[in-house]
């Protein structure tokens, strides 16, 4: 006859075993979506975090297709890795979600105007860069912001957890920041007069002002130059090494320059030297 104590003990062991099995299954399920190079090849698709409202770098066109500079680079990656540029699962992200999407294995790689910063290097691994940019500030042409001093007692619009957010929070804490998750909301706030200026990567600020003639980039460069690169989950060495080789190849063969000419040059025109953004070899 089994005592009550023995029954409790046996039940406890059974529940523990069930718990371990469940944990094991969860771990296996998570690992089945891990972002290793071999897993991507087995799945025959690469999951890429991209912006949907950040033209000309990542956006959805009128036909519902992903377009932009970052998208074009990602397509080259898919073609060279899987043999087909269409073997991409686009996962729309906001600036604040990019790190978390990698940590949770929701995506394999981020191609979303991701600037390399000391803080981000601590939590994700960046591959070779394909662009460089500083921060720029756009404002209405009728009341331009031409210096940081002009921002005193003014409201500056930024994207939450962006390079602009970090830079101004750290270096100019007295400047009032109005933060948004999405680029569309941020620029609508500027147009509606809820802020006096907006800070974005200079590449994007210049492109946006070119399409919105009532606005000007009064400060085309502020802060340190940042490199923009793909990012993978921390410790995903195999995929990181492959991406390093791939991005170097795309730079050296002139493919990055071609992508610039197709996606960015029509906006920047001849007045902007492409090497301002593409000269990343001396990083």
TrEMBL record:
Family annotation (SMART domains): PBPb, PBPe
Keywords: Signal, Transport
Protein name per its UniProtKB record: Transporter substrate-binding domain-containing protein
Signal peptide interval: 1-22
Listed Pfam families: SBP_bac_3 (PF00497)
Domain Solute-binding protein family 3/N-terminal as annotated: residue spans: 45-267
Family the UniProt entry places it in: Belongs to the bacterial solute-binding protein 3 family.
Source organism per UniProt: Acinetobacter faecalis
Highest taxon in the source lineage: Bacteria
InterPro entries linked to this entry: Bact_solute-bind_prot3 (IPR051455), Iontro_rcpt_C (IPR001320), Solute-binding_3/MltF_N (IPR001638)
Domain annotation Ionotropic glutamate receptor C-terminal: ranges: 45-266
């Amino acid at each position: 006859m089994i005592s009550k104590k023995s029954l409790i003990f046996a039940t406890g062991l059974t529940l523990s075993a069930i718990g371990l099995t469940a944990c094991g299954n969860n771990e296996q399920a998570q690992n089945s979506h891990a972002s290793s190079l071999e897993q991507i090849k087995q799945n025959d698709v690469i999951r890429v975090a991209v912006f949907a409202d950040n033209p000309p770098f990542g956006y959805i066109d009128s036909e519902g297709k992903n377009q932009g500079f970052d998208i074009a680079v990602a397509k080259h990656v898919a073609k060279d890795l899987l043999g087909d540029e269409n073997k991409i699962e686009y996962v729309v992200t906001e600036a604040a979600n990019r790190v978390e999407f990698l940590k949770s294995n929701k995506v394999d790689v981020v191609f979303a105007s991701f600037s390399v910063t000391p803080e981000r290097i601590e939590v994700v691994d960046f591959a070779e860069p394909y662009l460089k940019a500083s921060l720029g500030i756009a404002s209405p042409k009728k009341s331009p912001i031409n210096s940081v001093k002009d921002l005193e007692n003014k409201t500056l619009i930024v994207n939450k957890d962006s390079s602009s957010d970090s830079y101004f929070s750290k270096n100019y804490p007295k400047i009032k920041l109005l933060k948004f998750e999405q680029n569309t909301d941020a620029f609508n706030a500027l147009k509606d007069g809820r802020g006096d200026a907006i800070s974005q990567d200079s590449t994007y600020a210049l492109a946006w002002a070119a399409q919105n003639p009532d606005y000007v980039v009064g400060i085309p460069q502020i802060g340190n130059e940042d490199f923009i690169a793909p990012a993978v989950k921390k410790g995903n060495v195999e995929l990181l090494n492959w991406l390093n080789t791939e991005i170097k190849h795309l730079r050296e063969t002139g493919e990055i320059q071609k992508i610039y000419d197709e996606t960015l040059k029509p906006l920047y025109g001849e007045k902007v030297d492409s090497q301002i953004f593409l000269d990343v070899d001396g990083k």
